[in-house]
Amino acid sequence: MVAVSVLGALILTLGLVRRSGPDAAAPDFVPAEAGSGRPTTPTSSPTSSPTGTPTAPPTGTGRPGATRPGTRPPVVDHGPRTGNRVALTFDADMTDGMLFNLRSGKVASYANLKILDLLERDQVPATFFLTGKWVERYPEVTARIAGNPRFELANHTYGHLAFTGDCYGLPRIPTQQMTQDVARTFTIVERYGGRQTRYFRFPGLCHDGAALAALAPLGVTVVDGDVVSGDPFATAWQPIVRAVLDTVRPGSVIILHVTEANAAMTDEALPHILAGLAARGLTPAPLSAVLGDGPADS
Ligand SMILES: [Zn+2]
């Protein structure tokens, strides 16, 4: 069981500003079908734009993490404890409160481009759990993620609402809206192409039977993670590095954040995490490879 309590601070103080960075999003940007040439699902429209209305929800059959629609989704903490692979996963949270902070100028950016710079420079695979609102706010950054053949894209809800009654004080989404919230987010993310998956992560890792049942029609795999870095609102990079390297094992799924102002030390921690993984003989790999859902060499 994942120690989700460590995540507690991430949710409530979403307005906290520690450091700012460049905001790369352009309001008129229209994403192309960027990426590695992976085909889109038959149900997605090749001409759809971020403002278009999809005609049918894609099922994502055949994508990593895809499960049979109608069945309660599996919940995964980590992959097999054999081999040397681990998954770096980065959550991209976005709430209405965070959007307000951006609009008011209180926060400059919730997109940590220094993380992308480093991962790209060192050719490190990673998997990004994106909220729909983050994608809508950062279409260019999303296209950059989708355009990297080492990066996978996954789903972290539309607006980072709680899917259970007690989830760090996050506002709760009504049960009858859960399925559509997650389906809508897949639709938003899938427009960007690249390495799309059917992996889903609940905000705060909060889920119960009702939340899992709501996802059954979507054919997804729920991914929690077994290494909680504690990077939200960290005030120094060293504890993040320690939290990761003290608990990481073969097959681990490491939870980090790409939210800049809400996780301002993550980019400073990342080089040390990568060095520590290498020293332990562990190699970052896409989540699908760590979970055994993807190509062995990816
Ligand atoms: Zn989150």
From TrEMBL:
SUPFAM superfamilies, per database record: Glycoside hydrolase/deacetylase
Positions of the NodB homology domain: 84-285
Domain of life, per lineage: Bacteria
InterPro entries per the UniProt record, alphabetical: Glyco_hydro/deAcase_b/a-brl, NODB_dom, Polysacc_deacetylase_ArnD
Record-linked Pfam families: Polysacc_deac_1
Region of interest (Disordered), ranges: 27-83
Compositional bias (Low complexity): 34-74
PANTHER family from the UniProt entry: GLYCOSYL TRANSFERASE-RELATED (PTHR10587), SECRETED PROTEIN (PTHR10587:SF134)
Protein name as annotated: Polysaccharide deacetylase family protein
The organism of origin for this protein: Micromonospora echinofusca
Taxonomic classification: Bacteria, Bacillati, Actinomycetota, Actinomycetes, Micromonosporales
